[in-house]
């Protein structure tokens, strides 16, 4: 698990059809991003990878062994925010986030290949799995050969390809003595700067000191950036005093008990469940 580093609705009769609920969930995402760029919409996975990429080199740190599982956690949160999956309802027997299974709420396509592939996997399982198990399965960290079919392959490259298509990254070939590697330098620095500024301001000027009052996607991105060991990249450009404030507030937020916080905010259970899974790993 990564650590924060420091410098040196209603009744059934009112229920909407699944298609309308999915569309409403997607509209909610747009509403939450009202202050963001109207031209480019990024998934949580794309945002995490963008934060982790070195701008000129176009690859993530060779020492980062957390980003793969972090991206899979991002897929689960993105699907939950879009109304496609949810946690098993709270019961007396299953109270802990990590004991509750992931249930399929809707298999309506999202338009994103990775999200839709994950939806098919969740739909195909004979028995429901927990958040932590799904992160392991999607990453390929399982000893059960019958479960290897659920692994998502080439995730980073596929996400990078999406970012290339959106005009944020470009594609190059670099030689590293013994091998050639495809890299994806940042070509749209403005979009990355916007993302970094958004997170910096959430910890500084817009700090609310209460996760229930935070925009869900911002909260999710902070959790995923921490889990993927790229949160340091967000605050690295800040002056020392602001850096310390941002890191201290981030630590306070991420040190909260997911079991206590999850019931407080509607629609944020999956975010806290993913954090709980990474805290345990």
TrEMBL record:
GO terms for molecular function: phosphatidylinositol-4-phosphate binding. Residues 1-10 have a biased composition (Basic residues). It is a peripheral membrane protein. InterPro entries: GPP34-like (IPR008628), GPP34-like_sf (IPR038261). It is found in: Golgi apparatus, Golgi stack membrane; Golgi apparatus, trans-Golgi network membrane. Keywords: Golgi apparatus, Lipid-binding, Membrane. The keyword Transmembrane does not apply. GO terms for biological process: Golgi organization; Golgi to plasma membrane protein transport; Golgi vesicle budding; retrograde vesicle-mediated transport, Golgi to endoplasmic reticulum. Belongs to the GOLPH3/VPS74 family. This is Golgi phosphoprotein 3 like.
